[in-house]
Structures are given as structure tokens and as C-alpha cells.
Amino acid sequence: MNIDNLSDVLKHCGSCNYCRDTCPMYIELKSELDSPGGKLRALRAYATKMRNPPVELLQRLYCADCRRCEAICPAGVPVTDIWHDAKGQLLKTGAEMSEPLQKVLDWIDKEGTPFIGYESDDRTMWAEDLELPPESNTAIFSGCMGSFWYPDQPETVVDMLHKLKVNAGYVPSEVCCGLFNYWAGDDKGFEEVVKKNYEMFKKAGVDHIVTGCGGCYGTLAEHYPHIIPDFDINILHTVEVLADQVRNGVLTFESLEGKYTFHDSCHLGRALGIYEPPREIIQAVPGLELVEMKNNRANSNCCGGFLSVLDPELSESVGRRRVAEAEELGVDGIITTCVSCYKNLSYNARETNLEVMQLDELILDKARASQVEE
Amino acid sequence: MTETEIESIPEPEPKTTEITILSQLQAIVGEENVSDSELERVVYSGDPSSLPQYHYRWKGKYLADYVVRVENTSQIEEILKLAQMNKLPVIPRGGASSCMGSSSPSRGGISLDIKPMNKILEIDKDKMTVRVEAGVTFERLENELEKKGLALGIYPSSAKSAVIGGWIACGGRGGIGTPYYGSLRDHTLSLSVIGGDGEVRVLEGDEIGLFLHSYGILGIITEITLKVHEIVTEYKTFSYGFRDLKALCDAMIEVARLEKKPLYLKIADEELQKYSNPIGTGRYLLSTTYIDEASAIPSEELNTISGKYDGVYLGEEFSKKEWELRYDAEFNPKEHTDTLMFQELWMPIETVYEMLTSYEAYRNSHKTSVLWFGMLGTPDEMRLELMTMIDAEQYLKFIASKGILHKMVKKAINLGGAPYTIGLQNTIYMARAYPDRLVEMQEAKEKWDPYGIMNPDRVTNCLTSFRRIDILFALATVFRRLSRYVGK
């Protein structure tokens, strides 16, 4: 798809504006130009050549990437794909990326991660003491969040997989999955990252990748095959693996008393339709009462985590709204499957009584090791 | 420096700050809430009547000059003063979910976004009332009321984006819940408004009627007090397929007239259903939803009526989906077409069959994708939504489709019906469909909007004439027929 053909796709938007009041960008910024429907109208005006492309249009297309608009759209408009293609085309036709975004892309190019200040050499630190085989048909993909900010997370995944007798390895020279390049509309950068990663996976003999990050999972499963047409690696999220073990009765848990709610990650939920596996795991924990937020599954509200690269204040504000939804339920805490969601929700719940925990962490704490080993 | 040299240096001119309309607007609502950028004006100048650009050109200056977001009444007062002084049109914009160009500029001016006025000011469980600002969406209001065990109970099918003030301005007659609970007028206890003259007033009783169907031409609704109900959480939907249009319409009339009223009653053709919930049996659908209590559901009567007219029950799963799709069904076809053209009619239920027979005849004669659905508004009247799916860039097809809808409005008026929403698109029919209301609104316009700034070219004033449109569509019909012989 490119901008010349976009006008055909854009016509499918009926301007019903259903997407507007669910969009975290609109809720925070209050301008229809920040709502998906508004941006589609603007793009349509541009794509039908009735208006010249205004420079500020590109900046408006950078959003939370939560896909709430797609879930609510009665006309099935592929908003995320449109944003991606329009960004790429606008960049090619002279629009400029903002300075902070460009810095991030440059850092990815240099150090393989969007986290400025972190260096590629540090990526493997979490795995140093774990003695993981560098070659294995099943690789752990720790992602940037797991590698740099929350090293306990991939370590937890490794522990769980060991308990489940899955011989997982690690590809040490892994770079960022490319989600940020894709989101930014940096097609060239994305292609480079994809090819680099794929080459490494193949060299190590990988045919299964397990990741605990929803963003990495979505990028690997959804977008890699567009660059590598014969992409033949099976991508799994830890919750899929573990839910399977719960279903088979292999994985059982010690009890945890309390009322918890579950926050669906946008990348895992709306992007890939994985709603039930994490719930199956949570409901298998004796004593734990799962209370759903009103906005759950496809209607789940974004936590704002992804926005932290764009606008930390905006990210916090979106996160606070999601935390408030959980608080209204009177629960003890929020469980989530995504490291980015965990980061933003736990930060914004710091002044509440809510405990925010990652599902992997809960599993590791409460799994009955003896049962697993049987 | 000599005295001569000093004299030769010109006196510095005092610095002046140019006072522009933009800067004055910024002073009122803050820089972040005003824009004159083309990009923002494009976004704020449209609604779901997404017709091609050449249609807009008929309207004149279709882009607003300024976009302004307001958060309170005093800001609106200041803006109206500025608009009066500069003779700038003011186009109130709520959810912008009307399909008839209710919030589309026709002479530039200020697109005044009232959506930031979205506070729920008071929920009074003892009095069973709620007081809200005009920019609250129906969905949000219901969510907030639900927390207190209450519900408004009525909402338009566009509840996800429509705002309370906007639906009042568009009439609020036929929506989900209205056959059971009554119209929005029945629920409105008071309105706070600011007239185009800048005066703030509170309307109660009969005065409220003036702002219903006013489309923003008199002033701006800022605050509303509404009656609420105890919440209902369980619903039961019954859906039937009919082979015959007459049977469908007769069954619909009988169901509408039962003592136990539905919350929602929809009829539709298989063309519309194809894009949302395909109907396996029959060509026409009747779907009706009740509060799920034995005392509220006319089970026996529904069985009798469906049996009498050979209606086939479509099952629980289908019926449940119909209820879930109540917001989406009319927009689902958009995924499959470039332009979905709408005309909405408000018809006595006895005339629905005749209307639909005529409309369906065009499907064959014009080889146009014609689809429709109806939603019961009151026990006696139905909102009929007629749609055509076309590629608007094919000019003859576009005009021919517009012509079909024009003929349908004329027929509706002859049968005692009328356009449902007026907006920019249907103002040409005011004199024929609502002659008394037109006189009432013309008088009110002079009193409430003496400067003529409020949402021009709607209701009381028309950019074109009925006769001109009539001739245009007659010519289009001739050209369409000719095109069969001389090629595309």
C-alpha cells in the first residue's frame, strides 16, 4: 500500500466518529485532529489531491498504537496500516520527523535499541549467569524492555521454561525487534532490523521464538513475514505456552488470596487476539478472584506505555486513567502480560494501594514446581 | 552628535500588536484551543455526510475560517460577541454524527466545538434526574449513570459519538429506547442556552420545544437536565425473517401497537443485513428487543403475529447479535463502498410499506445498490433510513442516486411523512414538510439571532431552491437514460 492508493482505503471511513471518544490521544488532547477519524479526514483531503500535505500532518499520525479505533470501527478501516503507510510516504515526500524521534531512530541504528543511553553490549547482561545455550531451536527473545529495564522478566521466562522442561536458548546478538522503526514509518530501518534478526535466528537454528513482550510478539508475528516472505519461525508468547500447560494440568498453582483485575495489552490483545490464555492462567490460581474492568478484551483501554517515547506526560495521564478504572473496582491489584504496560501502570499506581504485577512473575511465584516437574 | 544629526534620526514608532480575530479568539479560550490552520479546518468542517468535493462546492465556503474549542459558557458569550462584531458565522459542533450536514460550514466562520464541555454536573437519585453539559456523549452518560444504578434509557444509534446537546438540536425523536421510554423531549426538563444575541437563558416547559430541531440556528445549548430511570441490564431480542415486504410491514405495525412496547424495533432488507448480520431465511428482517422480564415481553403475541405473516424465528444467537449491532449496522456497508449516501425519513408506520415498495423499485430500474432499514421511534412513527452505495466520482450515478432520494422525500411528504433530520441537506424541504415549524423558526430566528450569525443556511434559509434541485434531478434522469444509448 502507498499513499497514492490510500484514497481508496480512506473512503471506507464513514466519519461516524465512533473512534474519537475511545482514542487516548483525543481524550487527552481534545482536538479532532488528534482523533483517528479526524486524521483520516485530513489524509483523505490530502490523498484525493484536493489539499497540499501540511507539514504538521506527519506529527499527528504518531499515536499510542493501541488500535482501539480499529476495534470500534464499524467499517473495518485498517487504521494502523494506514498510519504506517502514510507516515512512510509523508517522510519520503519531504515531511520531517521530529528531532526526538530521529534521535531514537539514530540510537537504534547505532546500538540496536530505542532506549537512549543503553548500549548493545549491555543487552546480554540478564542472561550472563544463566548459561543458556547460544544455539537452540527455541530462543528466548527478551526484547529491549526485558533486556535493559526489567531483566527479571526474561529470566522468569527462562526459569518457567526450564521447569516445563523446554530447552530454551538465547541468541545473544539479538537487536530490537523493530517495532519502533515500524511505528515511526522508518521502512528502511525496519527492513534492516528484520533482516539482521532473521539472519541471526537462522544461523542459530531457531524455529521457535518465545517472548514475554507483547510488542515484540506482535512485530515478529505480524510484520516480519511482510519483509521475509518465507518467514518460517513459529512465534509464541509465554502466556500461550503456559496456558497450554495449565489446560493440560501440568502447571498448577499455590493459592493467592485477593481480588485482581487483568489489563489487556494492546499489542497482545487487539493486535493479535490473545485475550483468553492469560485469563485461563489467572483463573487457575486458587483463591485469586478475577474481576474484569468494564473496558476489557477488545474494548480495553490503553495504558499509555508506548506513548512514553513520544510524550512522557501524555503517557502518564493515559496511565492514570487506566489505573483509576481498576481502582473503581476496589481490587487489590492489576495483572498484566506486557512489560511496557507493567512499567506504566506500576508507575501511575504508585500513589494508590494497587499492586501491579506481571503475569510471569505471578506464575513463577505461585507455580507448584513439584507438579511441573512431574 | 550635532543637533542636525539628531533631528535626522527618525523617532521610533511605538510597537503595535496587531489585533486579529485569531488573537482575540486566543485571548478568550487560550492558544491551544484555537486554530486557523488549514489542516484543522478541514477536519472540523465535515461529518458523516462525506460527499465528494464537488458537492461541497454547491454550499459555498465549506471550510470554517477558525476552529475553536470551548469549555464554559462565558467563553461562548465572548466568542458570540466577537462573531457579532465581525459578522462571522458560528457553527456549533457537537459529536458531528449527523448525516445531513448539520455542523458543516457553508459560509466559513467559526466551527465551535462544544465537546470539551462534557461534565456530568449532578446525578440526583431522589429526583431521578441528571444535569449535564451539552458535550457529553450518550455512551459516557450511560456509563456514569450505570454506576449509580440508573439509566437515561434512550439514545441515538450513534450513541458512541453523539452528544446530548447535538441530539436535542436534531430533534431526538427516534432512537433506541424511545418506543418504550419516550422521546428525548419527554426526558428534557430544562435547557440552558445562549442565544445568537448573546443572552443566557434557561428554558423549561413548552419553551424547550423551540430548541428541539433548531440545528444551532438560534443559539447554543450548554446545559441540560434530564429525567432518568432505574437501570435495566438484561434484554431479550426476537428476530424474524419474512419473504414478503407487505408481510414484514404488517407484522411491524402489529408489533408496534402491542400494549407491551419494545425498547428497539428494527426492520431491514437483506442488502443491509448482508454487511452486518446476514439473514439466512427470508429477504426482510424484523428484530425487536424488550426488557428481559416476563411481564415486559409479549411472547405469545409475537408468536401469533410471526405465524400470521409467515415470519421465521431466526434464533437466539442471531437475535443477540442484532442487539449488539444496534450502533453499527448502518455504517457496516461503508467498508464495501466509496460513498454511502443517506436520506432519513420520519414516517407514520402505516405508510412504510408504500415507501419501501417505491424505493425497492429503483433497485432494478436504476441498477443501483439500494438498501434500507427502519427504526421504530414512537409506537406510531418510524425513522426510515434509505441508503445507496455508489462511487461518487461517477457523476451521473451520483446525481441519479441523489435524484432517487429526492423523489423519495417528495413521496414521503405526500404520504404524511417528512425528512427526519434537516441540517444543510434537507433545508430545501422545510416549506413543504414542516410549513408551520418554518414560520415559527423564522420568527424565532429574528428574535434569538438578530445578527444572523448562528449556523446559517439551515432550516430557515436555503442555499438553493427546491425548484432548482427538482430540475437538476430531472435533467440527471434524462442524461442517465441517454447514457444507456451513448455509452458511459
List keywords for this structure.
heterodimer; A: 374 residues; alpha/beta; Fumarate Reductase Iron-sulfur Protein, Chain B, domain 2; Rossmann fold; 4-stranded parallel sheet; 18 helices; 8 strands; B: 488 residues; alpha+beta; Uridine Diphospho-n-acetylenolpyruvylglucosamine Reductase, domain 2; Uridine Diphospho-n-acetylenolpyruvylglucosamine Reductase, domain 3; 8-stranded antiparallel sheet; 5-stranded antiparallel sheet; 19 helices; 19 strands; 21% strand; globular
Task: Write a brief caption for the model.
Chain A is α/β, with parallel strands linked by helices.
Model description:
The complex is a heterodimer of chains A (374) and B (488). Chain A has three domains: 90 residues, Alpha-helical ferredoxin (Fumarate Reductase Iron-sulfur Protein, Chain B, domain 2, Orthogonal Bundle); 143 residues, 3-Layer(aba) Sandwich (Rossmann fold); 116 residues, Rossmann fold (3-Layer(aba) Sandwich), CATH 3.40.50. Chain A has 18 helices and eight strands. In chain A, the strands form two sheets. Chain A has a four-stranded parallel sheet with strand order 2-1-3-4, sandwiched between helices. In chain A, strands 6-5-7-8 form a four-stranded parallel sheet, sandwiched between helices. Chain B is of the alpha+beta class. Among the domains of chain B are: 93 residues, Uridine Diphospho-n-acetylenolpyruvylglucosamine Reductase, domain 2; 111 residues, Uridine Diphospho-n-acetylenolpyruvylglucosamine Reductase, domain 3 (2-Layer Sandwich); 60 residues, no CATH class. Helix content of chain B is 36%, strand content 21%. Chain B has an eight-stranded antiparallel sheet with strand order 15-12-14-13-17-18-16-19, sandwiched between helices. In chain B, strands 5-6-10-8-9 form a five-stranded antiparallel sheet, with helices on both faces. In chain B, helix 2 packs antiparallel against helix 5 and helix 16 packs across helix 19. The model of chain B has no long low-confidence stretch (mean pLDDT 92). Classes of the chains: A alpha/beta (374), B alpha+beta (488). Chains A and B meet through helix 3 and helix 4 of A and helix 3 and helix 6 of B.
